[in-house]
Amino acid sequence: MCRHTQTSPTLRSGLAADLASRRSAETRRLVLSQRRLPGPLPPGLARWFPALEVLDVSGTGLAALGSELLSLPRLHTLLAKNNRLGGPGSLPKGLAEAPLLGRSLRVLNLSGNRFAELPAALLGLRGLQSLSLGSNRLHSIPPEIQELRSLEFLYLGGNFITSIPPELASLPSLSYLVLCDNKIQSVPPQLAQLHSLRSLSLHNNLLTYLPREILNLVHLEELSLRGNPLVVRFVRDLTYNPPSLQELAGRTIKSRNVSYTPGDLPGNLLRYLHLASNCPNPKCGGVYFDSCVRQIKFVDFCGKYRLPLMHYLCSPECSSPCSSASQSSTSQSESDSEDEAIVAAHRMQKVLLG
Q1: C-alpha distances out from residue 354 to 174, 208, 232, 308, Å
Q2: What's a Pfam family in this record (predicted)?
Q3: Three-state SS for 108?
Q4: pTM for the full predicted model
Q5: Are 77 and 57 in contact (CB under 8 A)?
Q6: Fewest CB atoms within 10 A around its CB: which of 8, 71, 96, 251?
Q7: Taking residues 73-88, what's their average pLDDT?
């Protein structure tokens, strides 16, 4: 313990001397992630780098940021990932009321720290556009999150969150919401009010259903659901009933192009033959009527849909050319899955509604 108290001042003074030697009125980006910081940000940082806009102190072992942070008038991005922040005094007092930083800060990344709750001081940073608190120890999202009216990106994945507050729907500019790898059991229907939402990541939670209102998110481009009981249940419940003799006969007539005239068959059989659906597998060429194989394909690739899509085949032996979509994201499967997402929108809604 004595050795630590003797060396810490030395390390601190060494860091200050290093930063002082690099002082510049024009430096806008400062990265300190390659070294250990024994304490808070050193006094003088704002004086040495008055134009600083981006500060990266990720992976430095910081347990507190310190009051010097409040003196950086132009700072708009603070990256402090993978540190020891989260205890009392981790954030400087008066952070929310800081006249300069409160207005300038736009991006704050505190992922990989030890926060057990979302700090109240952060909720006063009304200019924040991006907030990341992934891989912390959060158990809830406070309703006051609605105060961050400028927020466009919110990352809270990898925590212990059990519910989503309806107040989250009051963020008018929110476009990207990441809540994956938590313990969330339901989605409030109010989220349908997030009209700017383009990406919603909910994979690896405890969801068993989605509210119908989720379909009102007309600008949603990406929805990730894998690893939820919702998806597992679809896979478990899929069954296949063998076709009847009537269907087998109808399949034979259609697939072999057996010729017939309206006078050859009763009216009910003619109507039945008109109900034939083509198998989506281009290598098959078969048809089905009432009996088909329901198959879930997981479309999961960046920038597109990440959804469990319902796929209909004429028999269990008829493999789809896209059936590996759940195992890989090759360019071919992505292209096929994109086509199906467009063609089978109504089937997608069935799966979403559960």
Answers
A1: 26, 8, 11, 11
A2: LRR_8
A3: strand
A4: 0.68
A5: no
A6: 8
A7: 94
Q: What burial class does residue 256 get, using C-beta atoms within 10 Å of its C-beta: 0-12 exposed, 13-18 middle, 19+ buried?
A: exposed
Three-state DSSP class for 176?
strand
For the segment 264-272, the average pLDDT, to the nearest whole number, is 88
pLDDT in tens, 336-352: 333 333 333 443 443 34
Rg (CA), the chain: 28
> 264-279: buried (b, 16+ CB within 10 Å) or exposed (e) per residue?
eeeeeeeebbeebeeb
Residue 288: its H or E element: strand 287-288
Is 127 in contact with 102 (CB distance < 8 Å)? yes
How far apart are the C-alpha atoms of 168 and 193, rounded to whole Å?
9
State the amino acid at position 170 in one-letter form.
Answer: S
Triad 145, 148, 154: Cα angle to 5°: 75
CA distance 172 to 109: 21
Task: Report which of 151, 144, 182, 150 is spatially closest to residue 166, judged by C-alpha positions.
Answer: 144
Give mean pLDDT, residues 111-119.
96
In whole angstroms, what is the distance from residue 78 CA to residue 110 CA? 9
**Band (331; pLDDT cuts 50, 70, 90):** very low
**Residue 297 bridge partners (DSSP):** 309
With bands split at pLDDT 50, 70 and 90, how would you rate the model's confidence at 84? Answer: very high
- The pLDDT, as a whole number, for residue 172 is 95
| Helix (H) or strand (E) run with residue 10 in it | helix 2-21
**CA–CA separation, 187 vs 169, rounded Å?**
11
